[in-house]
Amino acid sequence: MKKELPAFLLFFLSLFSIAYSQDAEAPFPKKQYSTLKIEGTPLSIDGKLDEPDWNRVEWTGDYLQWRPDAGKPPTQQTAFKILYDDKNLYIAFRCYDSDPAKIVSRMSRRDGFEGDWVEINIDSNHDLRTAFSFTTSVSGVKGDEFISGDGNNFDDNWNPIWYTKTQIDSLGWTAELRIPLSQLRFSNEDEQLWGIQSTRRDFRMDERSTWQPLRQNDPSWVSRFGELHGLKGIKPQKQIEIQPYVLAQAESFEKVDGNPFATGSDSKISVGLDGKIGLTNDLSLDFTINPDFGQVEADPSSLTLDGFQVFFSEKRPFFIENRNIFSYQLTGSQAGGAYDSDLLFYSRRIGGSPHHTVDSDPDNGTYTDQPDNTTILAASKFSGKTKKGLSIGILESVTQREMATIDQNGERSEAVVEPLTNFFVGRLQKDFHEGNTVIGGIFTAVNRNIDEPSLEFLHRSAYSGGLDFIHRWKNKTWFVSGKAIFSRVAGTTEAITRTQTSFEHYFQRPDAAHLSVDTAATSLTGHGGTFKISNLGGKIIFEGGMTWRSPELEINDIGFLRNTDEINHFFWGQYRLTKPFSIFRSLRINYNHWGRWDFGGKNLYRAINTNFFASFKNFWGAGGGVTYENLDISNNALRGGPALRRPNGMGSWLFVFTDNRKKVNFDFSTFQAWGFQKAVRLENYSFGINIQPANALQISIRPSFTSSERTIQYITQQNFNGTTRYIAGQVEQKTLRLTMRLNYNITPDLTIQYYGQPFVSRGRYQDFKYISDTPLANNFFDRFQSYTEDEINFDEAQDTYFVDETGDGKADYNFGNPAFNFFEFRSNLVARWEYIPGSEIFLVWSQSNTAFDDPSKGLFPSLTDNLFGNKAHNIFLVKVTYRFLK
Q1: Phi-psi group of 363: left, alpha or beta (phi > 0 → left; psi -120 to 50 → alpha; rest → beta)
Q2: What's 181's DSSP letter?
Q3: What pLDDT is recorded for position 764?
Q4: Per-residue model confidence as pLDDT tens digits over 376-391
Q5: pLDDT band at residue 864 under the 50/70/90 scheme
Q6: How many whole angstroms separate alpha carbon 802 and alpha carbon 795?
Q7: What is the number of alpha carbons within 13 Å of residue 757 lying toward its C-beta?
Q8: Is 30 within 8 Å of 225 (Cβ atoms)?
Q9: CA 253 to CA 220: how far, in whole Å?
Q10: Minimal CA–CA distance to 377: which of 395, 394, 396, 397?
Q11: Eight-state DSSP code of residue 663
């Protein structure tokens, strides 16, 4: 009998055939602009464009729409000129407007990109992959980004020193820029050839037009730039920047009688130093000594029951600037998946919370003062890109040996809670064939000076590394890429056994014949990788591939690893209409499917999805989708127990947003999921309102409500007559959060920003049960056995459940009440003044409040009682920096 190909494989092959048969449109011919050098006095930057030197060069313009209708003339035209001298590059913009009174001049913080703006992108290395972007809004707000990956990454955390002024007149508005050459990277050749691109945003029409024509379907950015000619005799400027800071901080918090560390107040003064030194034409050294990030916005609150780590974005300036050089995402798929959060380098590991905890025991008169974070003594980055296309990144950081202070009835002692630790990251990438082929590698190392028995559960050393490549062809519309990584951790038998039995690994799983715990091992070596092929040109585009994590892979000392023992297949395809038609400005329809196996060959997951996104001619937008899961088996759900089959189910989502050009606009989203046999139910609703009462003031309020019910939620495990009982219950969890933001921009350099988020999550349990001997049974109710009323009893005084399975009137085992009601409020109020370019004063008030309440209370009473009834932890600080620039 002839076998038929699976439907999804036939779909994949037909999509591949259609995509490959599409003609890859050749790039537009590259436009050219020739500049001239000025001698004598540098141009004054006032936005007026009235210096005689500007008359020496011609205007260039003829911008064309890029969005929404690529190739058509824009509603308003734009032109620019470029001049230079030995130290600076000068750009003049003329942004025509037929009705200057309607120009939208909104203020924001740096990189806010509000209202009308115009920008210049400069590929001064002319490597066709990286560029520097300088944006000025009509209100004079600066934006700057470092572009890498041929436009796949725009890093707005790059903050060079440059100057701009704007002016509105009868023809529209003008902008004048002075960019010091020290802020750019270029070769030592006598005559330069740079890539340039300019983009203008017309806020009223929501149009973007470009000087060098582009198609919306173009899969690349920098390699499509036009050319800047005429740069002669300029020399690379070796940049030297030194920025010391002084910080004064005062704290107030709740006083606790008897606790010598909770006196109600504390204060400190500290100093530190940041610096940047240009070592060569292409490479620079960034360093920081005793950094402080007190002005950084707080992380959002989160509470999950699934056991997986929560990923928090990096917000500290030293680690986010130029982070693209050190980036090594293990997968990064268009289809999306939990594996996309895995990183070989996750900078939040540096300076995180100490690994060891010394608990207080007030009943015995013992109190501890434990540091919240590990002190970063110093860190440095050596990075850059040579003219020959070699990108280099080296990061080194040392964190302090941290001590907890213990007070026992007035007697003080100390205990080590974190060893002296060194972190290292080295990254190399080399471009070939004008950036069509890129080959790279990375190596990371963590070495800890462990000199206390209490810390021997940590790895003494942790190394990881990888090789990666990407190759593009057919006008860069086709891509093939791959990554292969390894890891090796070493330490005591205690440390390695702890790793093998941790959540990400669970070698002790009784049904995992391919795994076993080696209690004598002192090291562990694993591997992983990704392979992808994609087409990103034309109306039909796709990406497919696979990614794997061996059971032994361990990178969480310096990276982020969500799970191991997985082989994932993914596929994504899209049909896109990027030109306006009917009621649409653009429309995209997607298809995805996923499959997952463990290294024992067990099929763990199968799902398919379809979704869409549409933008409309009335400037509204909407999207939504449906996912069907027809297999979901978890190796983690029972925390080291056997694999558990979860119910098949479906999920759907929808979002709508109104015209964001308006002074008041809204957005709404909802997500609904349900497991068959009524085993799982989840619903989420989020509503946002954005208000712009004045050009200088922005307010956003976003409440969100989530309700979930799960019939099988793991609680704990207990021994019963020589067997293990994996105990679960039916949980009902409700979560309410309210995110508030306010930005008041007095001037482009003087801003006030507020962020606040009250958060409350409550979980109630019932219908307690234990997992049966058939956790993979097709029938949902065969996977567990519920306790009868006679078998389980709750002792309210001890807040404990007692289980008597044998019926002899004696408890066979017990477990604590898993119900919870968690409240947290975090906020930051930051006033920032850049009193001279690169030098800042911060005034900060941050507040945090955490409480555990009665699970029988409702969400709103818990929120209001704890928000206004508890004494919060307040931090007030003043930070002053001064940047010396040469």
Answers
A1: alpha
A2: G
A3: 97
A4: 999 999 988 887 889 9
A5: confident
A6: 7
A7: 16
A8: yes
A9: 52
A10: 397
A11: S
CA 120 – CA 642 distance, rounded (Å): 57
Token look-up 């006008």 returns: 475
Among candidate residues 221, 198, 226, the one with its CA nearest the CA of residue 152: 221
Query: Which are the contacts of 14, defined by CB distance < 8 A and separation ≥ 6?
Result: none
Query: Phi and psi for 881 in degrees, rounded to 5?
Result: -120, 150
The percent of the chain in helix, strand and coil, each rounded to the nearest 5, is 10, 50, 40
HEC string of 473-495 equals ECCCCEEEEEEEEEEEEECCHHH
Beta-carbon count within 10 A of 733 CB: 20
Q: How far is the first Cα of the chain from the last one, in angstroms, to the nearest whole number? A: 79
Give the separation between CA 132 and CA 219, rounded to whole angstroms.
19
Whether the CB-CB separation of 824 and 276 falls below 8 Å is answered with no
Cα gap 465→439, rounded to integer Å: 14
The pLDDT of residue 2:
41
In the chain, what are the domains?
Answer: 31-232 (2.60.40.1190)
**Nearest 5 degrees, angle CA 737-CA 743-CA 747?**
170
pLDDT per residue as tens digits for the range 482-512: 999 999 999 999 999 999 999 999 999 999 9
The full DSSP string for 235-299 is: -----EEEEEEEEEEEEE----TT-TT-SSEEEEEEEEEEEEEE-SSSEEEEEEES---TTSPPP
Judge contact between 200 and 212, C-beta under 8 A.
no
How far from the centroid of its chain's Cα atoms is residue 32's Cα? 37
> Could you give the C-alpha distances from 275 to 158, 248, 327, 381, in angstroms and in order?
14, 21, 22, 10
Chain length of the chain: 886
Phi/psi for 348 (5° steps) reads -65, -15
**874 with 847: CB under 8 angstroms?**
yes
Nearest to 11 by CA among 23, 19, 21, 2: 19
The share of the chain scoring above pLDDT 70, in percent, equals 97
Whole-angstrom distance, CA of residue 741 vs CA of residue 756: 7
User: Distance between CA atoms of 147 and 187, rounded to whole angstroms?
Assistant: 18
What is the rounded distance in angstroms from the CA atom of residue 511 to the CA atom of residue 520? 22
Per the omega criterion (within 30 degrees of 0), is the bond before 68 cis? yes
List the one residue out of 390, 185, 190 whose CA is nearest residue 279: 185
Secondary structure of residue 861 in the 3-state scheme: helix
- Per-residue tokens: 451: 């000199």
Burial label for 154, CB within 10 Å (0-12, 13-18, 19+), is middle
Contact present, 660 and 704 (Cβ < 8 Å): no
CB 470 within 8 A of CB 564: no
Residue 610 CA: distances (Å) to CA of 166, 573, 613, 875: 46, 10, 11, 47
Cβ atoms within 10 Å of 383's Cβ, excluding its own: 21
> What is the phi/psi pair of residue 54, to 5°?
-65, -20
Q: How many angstroms separate the CA atoms of 199 and 13, rounded?
A: 38
Is the separation of the CB atoms in 666 and 701 below 8 Å? no
pTM for the full predicted model:
0.91
Contact 272, 290 (CB under 8 A): yes
Residues 6+ apart with CB under 8 A from 7: none
What pLDDT, on the 0 to 100 scale, is given for residue 1? 36
Between CA 585 and CA 604 the distance in angstroms is: 40
Q: Cβ neighbours of residue 797 under 8 Å, at least 6 residues apart?
A: none
Nearest to 487 by CA among 467, 464, 458, 521: 464
